[in-house]
Every structure is written in C-alpha cells, then in structure tokens.
Please model this.
Amino acid sequence: MSDRDADAGKSSPAGAGPGEGQDRIARMLGLETLPAEPKLRAALCALSDEVVCLHAERARLRRQLQKSLQLADRDTLCPVLNRRAFRRELKREIARAARFGSPLSVTYLDLDGFKAVNDDFGHAAGDAVLERVAGILVDNTRETDIVARIGGDEFAIALPHATADDAARHAERLAGRIDRIRMRDGGAADGPVLRVSVSCGVAGWQPDMEAESLISRADAAMYAARASSGNDLKRT
Model:
C-alpha cells in the first residue's frame, strides 16, 4: 500500500469508501477536491477533524446554555416558574391578547396562616406544603396557563383566553382542592394534622393595561380576600 493510499484510508469515515470520505472532507473545508500532495492532504484531514470537534463542542455549549436558561426560570423549590419568568411570560400573553382581542386573567393565591405552619411544624413541613400546593396548581391548569411562585407562600397563574369570571371559577376549584390537603407533622400516624387554606385574588386584563397594572390588581384583590378572614376570593 502506498503512502497516499494509507492517508486516504485514514481520512475516510466509517462506512464510507476512501473517495466518498475525501469528498466529504473537501466539502467541509469548502474545496472541490483534496489536493494530491500527501502532506498537505494529511494536514487538511487533521484540520477537518478539528472542525468536527469544534462543531460538537459548540453544540454541547448550546445545550448547556439552554439548560441553564431553563433552570434560571424555575423556582428553587417548586416545579413552577419564578417571579421574573412569570412577568416576562405575562408580558408576552398581554401582547397576544392585545393583538387578537382575546381575554386574559391573572389569579394570585396566598396560603392562609403559613407562618404558623413554619413556626409550629418546622420549615421542612412548610416546604412540603408549598410543593404540594404547587403540584395541585400544575395538575389543575391547562398547558397554556402560566403557573409561578411569586415568593414565600404566594403563587400566581396567568390564564390566557379566560375572562375574570372564568378565572374566578377556576380559583374556587383550586381553593377547594387545596382545602382538602391533610398532612401530619413529620409524617407520623399520630402526629398533629396540618390543614391548608388559601386566599385568592382575580383580575381581568383590560385593553392598554400593562403587566404591572394587571399584577397589582390581582395582588390587591388577594390581599382584600386575606384581610376579610382568609379562605376567600376577591376579584377586580
């Protein structure tokens, strides 16, 4: 076997003949054909290997960046979005609602007496309650709805194509499911029972209303529900 034949065989990818492999390398380097001179051909083949490695590394970094961006949008405890991501997605939904003239509503939810849960049962129990509530919200909303933990024991849901009446009925169903939560301290069969209720505020989007205004109205309605006695729903 000549040196030229050996070089050609080394440069051929698995499953491809020498000619096909050389043609593929030439195309990768922007050439019509590889030069006949053995050393130059070998150098170009080595360069093509580096190009392949660079492409693979760039693809890996792109996947890593995408994963990091997704994690940056998630709440640190619950399987929902965080406040920053919620505001960004709400702005997008408002733009769609304005463009198509479709309804849009926001629901704010606050767990009643949550501080007492942490004080009486411990922060681990409090975290378990938050995760349980988040699971109920996710399981009982549409794929198009946007669920987020705003902070502490407050959650928010953006409901595209839903009027304030639709959102209020949905919030009542969620409150009913949350009200049925029963957990025992530390999981002990004879431990004290932990119960949960929620105050809800609902606001419907109006034309020319910005995201911050819609959020503020839902937040104010939620605080009004909490101030009235808790385990209540108010809407604006």
Observations:
- Residues 1-18 have pLDDT under 50 and may be disordered.
- DSSP finds eight helices and seven strands in the chain.
